[in-house]
Write a structure and sequence with these properties.
4-stranded antiparallel sheet; about 160 residues; single chain; globular; about 10% helix; alpha+beta
């Protein structure tokens, strides 16, 4: 995950407003600024055991409902012992259409509609030996781009403990 650890200062010029929250947040989650998330493009590829690869989602961190400072405040107010160096993940980031949904569960309508892959296979959920690769970057339109690199993981079969 080292490529995904990017200083907030490097992303400062990519600040943008988060999604509009229709619910009034508690006082400790209220922020003094509207541009409280970052414009980070995110893509996820699924590669099957046969090697066929398809980008299954393209979304953006501007689709967050809560900012990272809000997430940190929410964790810490409940007594979570967050310390310097701890990693904080946002969870699923979904856009408004199927191609930008952040989870296969959403994309497959709760597993009812298989996601077509490039080799004729389909998926509703990940299978053994499927590899997921995350990519993220900010900018790029004017030539300046902050890349987060690739972060990949492969589903391994369950161990036979018998």
């Amino acid at each position: 995950v080292s490529a995904w650890v990017v200083l907030a200062d490097a992303l400062e010029k990519y600040r943008c407003p988060a999604l509009e929250n229709e619910t009034q947040v508690l006082k400790y989650l209220q922020e003094g600024r509207k541009d409280n998330v970052f414009d980070i493009n995110l893509e996820v590829d699924l590669t099957t055991k046969s090697g066929a690869t398809k980008t299954i989602t393209k979304t953006n961190a501007r689709n967050l409902l809560f900012s990272y400072p809000q997430m940190l405040a929410h964790h810490s107010i409940t007594g979570c012992p967050i310390q310097v160096g701890d990693l904080l993940g946002s969870g699923t980031i979904s856009g408004e259409d199927v191609g930008s949904f952040g989870s296969m569960y959403e994309q497959s309508t709760n597993g009812k509609n298989p996601i077509p892959l490039n080799d004729g296979e389909t998926r509703t959920f990940l299978e053994d030996y499927d590899t997921i690769t995350f990519r993220g970057w900010a900018g790029g339109e004017d030539g300046e781009k902050i890349g987060f690199g690739n972060c990949s993981g492969t589903i391994q079969p369950a161990l036979d403990l018998a």
